[in-house]
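Hi R.,

Here's the chain you asked about this morning:
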Amino acid sequence: MAVTKQKSASVSHVQRDRKKDERVVRTRKQVDDAFVELLHRRAYGNIRVSDIAKKAGVGRATFYAHYCSKDELLRSQFNRIVAPMLVVKRDDPCLLDASALLRHVQTSPRLFKALVAGREAGSGPRVLRECFEERVRQALESWDGNSQVDGSNFAMQRAIVIRAVASSLLAVIACWVESSMSQRAEEVQAIFSRLVGGGLMALGAAEAKKGQPRTAVPT
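And here is the predicted structure, written out as tokens:
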């Protein structure tokens, strides 16, 4: 009898956990969907947490139980949706192939314009740049095995590379959505590749000439 009660209690506990997990997934989807819908209507800087919560049909306390801020919500969506679209290029001077992301931008230009264009974008450009930087950092680590090279000069150059690539991608997307977007995604990727690849090749050549540890750039 005691064994039967123990098994019943265990099953009930599993069922409660499953229902709790399902509620978490459902609530996050409501918040995510509401956030995206709002971005199609107004700039990121003009969206408040209360707006997202109201649109999602949840309370502010519920929102903060899942995300500590609107910026964290944006980072979460970036990591889940955008990051996989930035493909590491091991055999190209350009660090990333953003073609998939650029095709996604083409399908939702208004959304991305809300995130990156103009003063009303608020903290959107900064958050996206930081997310891009993390992806570039991962790309560099995939080449050098996260090696630790001594020297403040190398560390600064590495930081410059990460910031330059991320900022360039952000600038390319912002300029594209602010224009007529007449170029195809592949054409915009080619612009990004020339812009970034040429600069990284020049940096690598300068380091090699000086005999310094070379920033991890593919050849």
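One quick note: The chain is about 70% helix and 0% strand.

Cheers,
M.
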